[in-house]
């Protein structure tokens, strides 16, 4: 899973690039929150879903990164399960978009600090 920022509908969105598509993380979290996967999930996947749906959907990349490594691992586990067994996770249209139909942007559009070092003088 590669985290990306992409443009959709004139606004920047946070996504996860998997294979030939980009999954809108905000829409995916909202979709999971509605109980789209049902109750028949394995215990470890249920724990990952519970971790991801806790709190609001990430609005930008810095928000997603501030959620921590456990949150990103849980998201990666859910997306990897969907990639390995597409029948188990049917991601609806609009949550997943073909890569050729999105415009990738800078991963972190407004970095807080830029540090440069010049050692070749």
Descriptive account of the structure:
This protein has 121 residues and is α+β, with helices and mostly antiparallel strands. Helices cover 35% and strands 20% of the residues. It has helices spanning 25-33, 43-53, 61-66, 69-84; strands spanning 2-8, 11-18, 21-24, 96-98, 103-104. A five-stranded antiparallel sheet has the order 4-3-2-1-5. Helix 2 (43-53) packs across helix 4 (69-84). The longest helix is centred in the middle third of the chain and has 16 residues, at 69-84. The model has no long low-confidence stretch (mean pLDDT 82).
Mean pLDDT: 82
Helix content: 25-40%
Which CATH class?
Mainly Beta
Query: Regions with pLDDT < 50 over 5+ consecutive residues?
Result: none
Widest β-sheet, arrangement of strands: 4-3-2-1-5
Number of helices: 4
Under CATH, the topology can be stated as SH3 type barrels
Strand content: 15-25%
Classification by helices and strands: alpha+beta
Total domain count: 1
General form = globular
CA-atom Rg in angstroms: 16 Å
